[in-house]
């Protein structure tokens, strides 16, 4: 049974840049422990969510409200700082350009790595099929990802992430850098994946898109759930993902 359960989940990012260069304040801070002194950002704050098969959940909220972080928690990219995350089913996270690749590795090795992480065997034929979808030149397979343009990198990540069906599909801001031709191709592949997935969670600033596609919308504010809206009548799940593009 596919399901997602978050129980009182918090995620704190350490604030490495917030180092205090004043020796006096640092020494006194150790002794006094000023209450206002923070060395973390609480990006997700005491969030509880349950999702069963059939759920189409939208995550809304202003910049920095914790949408991407919440998706990353569900994807297992970050462990929660506190609380419990239980996910049953295989997850395909489409979380953007910096998701789990090593830019110094050549494209082919990154594809193999991403497949292994998601429990798939990176056979020659699987890698070739993924590469064919990217429509990039064959020689680029042996080029480090660092030398790819954003759009080329997105093609490789998208083709790899969507090569197999998912129980749970997580969509963040996506497809913003690919050209029109690839976007159309990608959208068709994505729609197919969405229709097969048991649970879809989509983070977006596009309220009409969320209302059209989701069964409920969770509004986040400073990492907390400010409200949850049931979308009535039940959405048709006709994803119009192209409207998400900038
Ligand atoms: N890698 C990181 N290190 C430190 N803080 C981070 C990191 N990523 C995000 N944050 C902080 O966590 C908070 C939530 O960020 P997050 O990216 O989850 O928000 P968001 O709702 O997805 O924003 P947006 O709508 O702009 O994409 C913000 O305060 C942000 O500054």
UniProtKB/TrEMBL annotation:
Gene3D superfamilies: P-loop containing nucleotide triphosphate hydrolases. One of its GO terms (molecular function) is ATP binding. Transmembrane segments: none annotated. Keywords: ATP-binding, Nucleotide-binding, Transport. Pfam families: ABC_tran. PANTHER family: TEICHOIC ACIDS EXPORT ATP-BINDING PROTEIN TAGH. Belongs to the ABC transporter superfamily. This is ABC transporter ATP-binding protein. It comes from Bradyrhizobium xenonodulans.
């Amino acid at each position: 049974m596919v399901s997602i359960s978050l129980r009182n989940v918090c995620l704190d990012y350490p604030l490495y840049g917030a180092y205090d260069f004043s020796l006096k304040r640092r020494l006194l801070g150790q002794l006094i422990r000023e209450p206002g002194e923070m060395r973390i950002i609480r990006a997700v704050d005491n969030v509880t969510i349950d999702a069963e098969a059939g759920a189409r959940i939208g995550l809304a909220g202003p910049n920095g409200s914790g949408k991407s972080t919440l998706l990353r928690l569900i994807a297992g990219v970050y462990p929660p700082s506190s609380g419990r995350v239980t996910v049953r089913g295989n997850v395909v996270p489409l979380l953007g350009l910096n998701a789990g690749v090593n830019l110094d590795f050549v494209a082919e090795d990154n594809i193999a790595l991403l497949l292994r992480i998601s429990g798939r065997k990176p056979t020659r034929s699987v890698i070739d099929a993924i590469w064919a979808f990217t429509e990039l030149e064959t020689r680029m397979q042996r080029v480090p990802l660092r030398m790819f343009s954003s759009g080329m990198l997105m093609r490789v990540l998208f083709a790899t992430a969507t090569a197999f069906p998912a129980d749970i599909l997580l969509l963040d801001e996506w497809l913003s850098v690919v050209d029109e031709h690839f976007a159309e191709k990608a959208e068709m592949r994505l729609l197919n994946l969405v229709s097969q997935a048991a649970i879809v969670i989509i983070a977006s600033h596009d309220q009409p898109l969320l209302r059209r596609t989701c069964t409920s919308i969770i509004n986040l504010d400073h990492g907390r759930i400010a409200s949850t809206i049931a979308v009535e009548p039940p959405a048709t799940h006709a994803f119009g993902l192209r409207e998400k593009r900038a």
